[in-house]
Design a protein that fits this description.
Residues 351-593 form the Bacterial type II secretion system protein E domain. By secondary structure, this protein is of the alpha+beta class.
């Protein structure tokens, strides 16, 4: 009997088994001795919620898996107490002995015992036909009763159709029933390594830190991640565990001398030195590559975000959701190709506490009962992420997290065209509105791509224009914009969700921007009272260049309703909006696609209700049946007519349409020549404007070819 202890948390009883001195891996599905131990333990402690075998790594079997064994444990207790005694007649007693052996082995291998009972039943029936023995008739009744009991268990019902030709002792069938959550000793997460039975792998790819499987279970798709940590040798596991323990004793996180921005560098070097020292002490040969690999893993689990960093290395993942209570619910991810997927990972309460500690440290913001919301942005390695965390009393079951990963470089219109979010015509129209200083609000539900389109449109602003961005969480990549030549000032304001903060409210940021010179204004998201200041500034003409922003709304009128009725913006100020861009998520088979579904202009000649007075004019509408965007007649567009009045080289509407067509052609060339990233696109836009004004677009295409062939032109 392996030593164990019982831990009780609230109404859950967890058995922790010490298998460190056991000479085999303690897996119920593979090891008959471990299954025997577990079933016999359940006969004594039937109300166990989960059982954890610790052997360096931890192997946890949850309530649903133990439920299969609890039924077997109860049947074993009942049958073992009433095993019939031999009769003293040799040819009869051999069947009694077989029955006794089968029942004795039931806890080690229930499926083999069931099959053996079925086969014994046939043998006894044949023998009864020959001898008509009353003793065998009684034994047959006992065997049938045992078979019926096992027939009623969930374990047998799940495998019954696979038992034809079953070989006694074959344990591969148990791998379809039991799949422990495995946690290496230096990690505090639980992870199912085995792909669910009867599932089909529909996609597979690798990152630097994991193998990724997209699995179709027949009911839904799942995200199955196997980190490189699980391919380490036992020696490397042990080394990492010892190093993490030593680092926990000396915790630089508690040092006032270390700035949070430098923590990762400090911890990386400290971890590396610790690994070298331990390797020398235990006489372990560490190559340079192996040392770098182990140091990176150690950093992730000491000063980093743990398994979250591994998920973020998958560039297909945009959102990560962790729901309370931690340890019970799987992590969910939003995949750019497959939408929301359940993962094979669970964050333990310990890891959740560690994650909260890191978030508070790096953000400088509180998260406690007095401040139950933390909203911040972080840069982890090359990933920019936005993190929202909640706790009690707002989240009654404990910590919950929402993590959004931003692209390390901003999205561009050619990239969004390539990924089919919008077409060339829609992109050209939006680029035109931005270039010539219109006010644009991008609306849609969460995750529809509002911020992605916002940053793409920002890159359509001419380099000669100064830009001021206002955000409560820094999502716009202003540092990148500055590196590629933009004159950008970033203002950070207080989140409307923050209870305690030294930051100024957003309306102060907007008023300050009006005193910082002639600029285009980019507002990360219109949320609250700042809307009044923003729309007032637009109405009186205080903002001469483009104004771009995002807002949550489902329709143009829904946007009006929210801004005017919910946020308190006067109707006259709302008229300052020129263009409303609607985004949404479209279901395409098993995949979710982000789509531009509507471009609507707001005319100015209405008094009470823009919908009733036909002030919303659709310039473009997405048709889901044909998967195409239909551009309506633009000749009566109020916004385009106003641009003609202001721009000298547009003599009439024909010349304006000619420019739009040229812009559409330019975007098609950028996609054709794979000129997709921010710096390339900005330079290509500046060259396009110059060549168009000079009337030399033929030379422009030659320039793009050079840009494609010689990146050093950039």
């Amino acid at each position: 009997m392996l030593p164990y202890k019982i831990e009780e948390t609230e109404d859950k009883k967890i058995v922790i088994v010490d298998a460190n001195n056991y000479n085999d891996i303690p897996l119920i599905e593979d090891n008959p001795n471990i299954m025997d131990f577990t079933i016999k333990l359940l006969t004594q402690i039937p109300d166990v919620y989960s059982i954890i075998f610790e052997q360096g790594d931890s192997y946890e079997y949850d309530y649903n898996q133990l439920a299969l064994l609890k039924e077997i444990a109860q049947i074993y207790s009942d049958l073992y107490m009433f095993i019939p005694r031999p009769t003293g007649i040799p040819y009869i007693d051999k069947y009694f002995e077989q029955y006794h052996t089968i029942i004795t082995l039931l806890p080690r291998d229930p499926i083999s015992s069931y099959v053996s009972l079925k086969r014994l039943e046939k043998k006894i029936e044949i023998e009864i036909e020959k001898t008509n023995s009353k003793e065998l008739v009684n034994l047959l009744s006992i065997v049938k009763k045992a078979i019926k009991s096992l027939d009623n268990t969930k374990m047998i019902s799940l495998v019954k159709d696979k038992l034809i030709g079953y070989q006694i002792g074959d344990r591969t069938i148990y791998r379809e029933l039991f799949y422990p959550l495995i946690k290496p000793s230096f990690m505090y997460v639980k992870l199912i390594t085995q792909i669910p039975s009867k599932s089909k792998i529909i996609d597979f790819y690798k990152t630097n830190e994991a193998n990724i499987y997209i699995v179709d279970t027949g009911i839904k798709l799942k995200y199955h991640l196997i980190p490189i940590e699980f391919s380490l040798s036992p020696e490397e596991y042990d080394l990492l565990s010892k190093a993490r323990y030593q680092l926990s004793r000396y915790n630089p996180l508690q040092s006032n001398l270390i700035e949070p921005s430098n923590l990762r560098d400090v911890f990386y070097q400290l971890g590396k030195d610790t690994l070298i020292r331990l390797a020398q002490y235990y006489r372990i040969n560490l190559t340079k590559d192996k040392l770098e690999k182990l140091s990176s893993i150690l950093l992730k689990y000491t000063a980093g975000l743990g398994i979250i960093e591994t998920i973020l290395e998958d560039k297909n993942i945009e959102d990560i959701s962790i729901n309370p209570p931690t340890g019970e619910n799987p992590i969910f991810v939003y995949h750019t190709e497959y939408g929301y997927l359940e993962s094979n990972i669970k964050l333990t309460p310990i890891e959740a506490e560690i994650l909260v500690t890191r978030l508070k440290l790096y953000s400088g913001r509180p998260l406690d009962e007095a401040n139950p919301i933390l909203d911040t942005e972080l840069k982890i390695k090359n990933n920019r992420i936005r993190v929202a965390a909640v706790t009690k009393p707002l989240s009654p079951y404990g910590y919950g997290f929402s993590i959004r990963r931003h692209r390390d470089k901003p999205w561009t219109l050619p990239l969004l065209i390539k990924y089919e979010m919008l077409d060339y015509q829609s992109a050209a129209l939006l680029s035109f509105f931005v270039e010539f200083g219109r006010t644009i609000l991008i609306a849609g539900p969460r995750g529809a791509g509002k911020t992605s389109l916002l940053t793409a449109l920002l890159l359509e602003i001419p380099l000669s224009t100064r830009i001021i961005t206002i955000e409560d969480v820094l999502e716009i990549p202003t540092e990148y914009l500055q590196r590629i030549g933009y004159n950008v000032l970033s203002l950070k304001v207080k989140s409307p969700l923050s209870i305690e903060s030294k930051e100024l409210p957003a309306e102060y940021g907007i008023r300050a921007s009006l005193r910082l010179g002639d600029s285009a204004l980019v507002l990360g998201e219109v949320r609250s009272k700042e809307a009044i200041a923003l729309f007032e500034a637009m109405r009186v003409g205080a903002l001469a260049h483009s104004v771009l922003g995002t807002i949550h709304a489902e329709t143009p009128y829904g946007l009006y309703d929210r801004v005017v009725n919910d946020l308190g913006v006067p109707k006259t100020s709302f008229k300052a909006v020129d263009i409303i861009v609607m985004l949404n998520k479209i279901i395409d088979g098993l995949k979710l696609k982000r789509k531009l579904v509507q471009i609507t202009e707001l005319t100015k000649y209405w008094e009470k209700d823009p919908l009733e007075e036909n002030a919303f004019i659709d310039l473009a509408i997405y048709d889901s049946k044909s998967d195409k965007t239909i551009i309506n007649d633009l000749s009566n567009s109020y916004t385009l007519r106003e641009i003609i009045k202001r721009v000298r080289h547009f003599k009439d509407f024909v010349s304006l349409l000619s420019y739009l067509k040229a812009k559409e052609w330019q975007l098609s060339l950028l996609v054709k020549y794979n000129i997709l990233e921010g710096k390339e696109v900005v330079i290509a836009n500046e060259l396009f404007r110059k060549h168009y004004i000079d009337g030399n677009l033929k030379m422009y295409e030659q320039t793009l070819k050079k840009m494609k062939n010689k990146k050093d032109v950039l």
